[in-house]
Amino acid sequence: MFNTKDNNRKNEVNGFKNPGFVIDLRAAFKETEKQAEPKISDKKKLKQDLRQRKISTWFASFLKKRKKTQKNNLNLNFWKEQITSSKNKNNFFLHSKRQKKADFHFEDLFKKKKKNSWWEKAIKEKRKILNTRFYYKPKKMKQLEENLIWYRSLFSFALILLFLVVPLKVLSYLPFFDVTKLEERVMTHSQAAVSKIEEAAGLMSEFDFIAANNKLSLAGEEFLQAEDNLRFINDSLLSLATLSHNPKIKMAAESKHILEAGVISTELAQNLVTLSDTLFNYKENSNLLEVLATVSEQGNYVYQDVVRLEKVITEIKTDNLPLEYRQQFIDLKDKVVYLRQGLFDFISLLDSTHELLGKTQDKRYLLIFQNNSELRGAGGFLGSFAIVDLRAGEIKNLEVPAGGSYDTEGGMTLKVKAPEPLWLVNPAWHFWDANWWPDWPTTAQNLMWFYEKSGGSTVDGVITFTPTVVENLLAITGPIDMSAEYGVIITSENFWEIVQKIVEKDNLALTHPETIAGFKESNEEIVSSLPLYQDLENNAENKPKKIIGDLMARILEVLPTKMNKDNLLDIIALFENSVSSKNLMFYFSDKSLQKESLQRGLAGEIKAAPHDYLLVVNTNIAGQKTDRKMKESIFHYSQVDETGKIVNNLNIKRAHEGLKNEALTGVRNVNWLRIYVPLGSRLLSASGFSMPDASYFEAPEADWYDSELLAAERVAVTDAGSGLKIYQENGKTVFAGWVMTDPGQTADVKISYVLPFNFFHTEQKTEINNFWEKINNLINKDKINYLNYSLLVQKQPGAKASDFQSTLKLPNNLELLWSYPDNLTWKTGWNFSQSLDRDKYFSLLLNNLYDKR
After folding, report:
1. Helices and strands in the chain: count of H runs, count of E runs
2. Alpha carbons 55 and 51: distance in angstroms, whole number
3. CB of 125 closer than 8 Å to CB of 22
4. CA-to-CA separations, 330 to 7, 494, 850, in angstroms, rounded
5. How far apart are CA 329 and CA 313, in angstroms?
6. Which of 294, 269, 274, 262 has its CA nearest to residue 210?
7. CB under 8 Å to 812, separation ≥6 — which residues?
8. pLDDT at position 80, please?
9. Cis (ω within 30 of 0) for the bond into 175?
10. How far is 671 from 675, CA to CA, in rounded Å?
11. How far apart are the C-alpha atoms of 760 and 781, rounded to whole Å?
12. Angle at the Cα of 81 (from 125 to 64), degrees rounded to 5?
């Protein structure tokens, strides 16, 4: 019989809570009904019971009670089933009420273990702890708790060893997992693959696409072999390698992703080779629309490969790569993103081109030939034009009036008032002078209107190009032999001079007859594979622009034969340069095509600017072809004072490098100069302007039609001091005046004006539209108000590149944080000089050091 002391001890021990593995083994049990206390007289039986419990402990008592309530003995097979059973993986050390067993000895699980193993030592220690007889004393209890914690830590370590370390250790002893040999095999295959890719790149640069494709196939096989060597390794084991401090082991963790990226890269390269082969081996008789459809399909395959590659590369953890390769890998990720975006744009552009070329319905376009040797707002004098009809990518009709744009005069029945500067030559406005504005969408719509009013048909768009584009095309096609028709061979170098002299032969015969000696006249239709029509039957003797149509037909015949590996890259570069310099511009009536044109920089529109803006436009009126001899320099100086007021001083110098009395160029350059600046700018001063004598101007009749597009110019304000016209157009303020320059002379124009905004308060937005800017303002309520300032300088369409120099002088309390472009020289502002061969943008992000806002 237990005395009170024993009962108290039993209650304390049973109530003792230990969170270790030991407690998990001792599952909860139902207490049996209390037995009747033994009688005191039965001392012999009581002594026998006490002797039997002499070595018992709380855990032994616990096991005996379990023994009384269990029906079946626990055997080793039962525990094996528990270990292997998928249902009990998460409850391996927890027993259900139905699984309570008696006389269980933990060491039975490890009977096959060698003697003196660490497992056996652990079990002995456990038994020593749990079978030791003790009484409830604070010191004993503390010792028990410490021993149990030690045991729990030991078992936790055993679990880590069992599930994490042991598999790697075991694999390292297996013959097929020789780490050194595995590394050698993987590296051998990978290096071989890289070598094949390098060879393929060399072959592609030589345009040997078949051999390049074979090399890439071999590279892909090498990468697959390398993947096979790693296939038997479980991904979870590779994940463990990321825990290592060894750089090689950490990199091994990314091995499968890296090799997978290699396999995808070779597939991508092969598809890219196929696409390039289609482009560079363009067959002469191929239908352009069919070729573009094939290229688009192949481009989609390449795009899908790039998307897959980007996904795999994203899964590679940069921190697991060696330091010397991390930046290269980051650059690779960026390039893949750019490649994906570029391919997406390329494919969407091809899809749009299908519609442009008449895939679903016939298209008719008005082609405008602008002579930039006689500058006009949109590029040059409109001497010639053509109508081209397209069906499914093929030219079905090509009309090039041999009389040029003057042939439209006969069909024009409406009298229209010309822009006031054109009154110098003609008060009536005609088709050949309709390209008045530097904003091509506005000018294109005006040309369509005039063409229809002159008896022409409705067109689906207007495409313009200058002699500069033709000169560059002739550099690709090679010389065009027109000896039979005109007695000349036209090349890139002599194109402008020969064509201009043939077109102007009647005038030159009076002033410079020696310049046209040896030229033949041609009034007969040329033999061409194209459906060329030039209206030669009507007034055949007055067809000065016939050579334009003849030459266009010859170039269009030769160009497809030059669409090969030797010239295609040059053709693509020619297109890009022509568009960026605005020697080639597009306008479409179809809204979706026009949207594409605007997004891709093909439209030649006047752009919006957040801060400073500048566009200098020259319009040659009665100055013959003198712009070919003009050299322009623009000096832009901005001064910002302490209050934030911005004053711009603009100096434009136009040097006439022609010789006096030289044919076509040796005369005075008469120029209507327009300067586009930020809307609301206020003129301070101007000098260097000179107007032709008023007697040369002829005003239109009052009842003539007045175009709404000229409404702003009609109400222009005239500056009393300089005579400049000031008005608003396309969201800009325009300062306009006459500048005349004789051969050998230099015109020096100066203009000063105040910008309509304060430098320190240039942001005029009433609300914040950028999501991240809203978040940043919410998080950083007391953030510094950084200053952003920029300058957009646009190039005039068709004009030669001007020399442009800009200086921005700022207060000393500003610190540069960022600039675009990166090479801007900073010295309390910027100072740079560049060729204005295309639109240029410059921007600064500044910190006001004294701003306490």
Report:
1. 25, 22
2. 8
3. no
4. 71, 50, 38
5. 9
6. 274
7. 828
8. 47
9. no
10. 12
11. 19
12. 50
φ, ψ dihedrals at 26, nearest 5°: -90, 80
CA-CA-CA-CA torsion sign (342, 347, 351, 354): positive
Report pLDDT for 61: 56
Nearest to 256 by CA among 237, 238, 243, 241: 238
Q: Transcribe 550-597 into DSSP letters.
A: HHHHHHHHHGGGG-BTTTHHHHHHHHHHHHHTTSEEEEESSHHHHHHH
Q: Looking at residue 255, what is its pLDDT?
A: 53
What lies within 8 Å, CB to CB, of 647 at 6+ separation is 638, 639, 641, 684, 752, 753, 754, 755
Two structure tokens written together for 42: 């039965």
Put the strands of the sheet holding 732-741 in their side by side order.
717-718, 725-729, 732-741, 669-678, 612-620, 787-794, 840-848, 814-820
* Regions of the chain with pLDDT less than 70: 1-263, 265-266, 268-270, 280-285, 313, 316-333, 335-336, 539-542, 762-785, 850-853
- The long-range contacts involving 523-527, CB below 8 angstroms and separated by at least 24 positions, are 524/485, 526/485, 526/550, 526/553, 526/554
The whole-angstrom distance between residue 694's C-alpha and the CA centroid of its chain comes to 54
Tokens at residue 578, please?
Answer: 């022509």
Distance in angstroms (rounded) separating the CA atoms of residues 73 and 252: 49
pLDDT tens by residue, 327-373: 666 666 676 677 777 778 778 877 888 888 888 899 999 999 999 99
pLDDT given for residue 769 in this prediction: 47
Q: Which residues touch 547 (CB under 8 Å, ≥6 apart)? A: 482, 485, 486, 499, 502, 503, 522
pLDDT of residue 323: 64
How is residue 627 written in tokens? Answer: 């712009």
Instruction: Write down the pLDDT at residue 347.
Output: 80
Selection from 475, 291, 464, 303 nearest residue 393 by Cα: 291
Tell me the Ramachandran region of residue 20: left when phi exceeds 0, alpha when psi lies from -120 to 50, beta otherwise: beta
Residue with tokens 């001064």: 639
Q: What is the DSSP letter of 195?
A: H
Distances from the Cα of 732 to the Cα of 580, 679, 724, 777, 853, angstroms: 22, 4, 16, 32, 32
CA dist., res. 689 & res. 328, Å (int): 56
User: Which residues have C-beta within 8 Å of that of residue 163, sequence separation ≥ 6?
Assistant: none
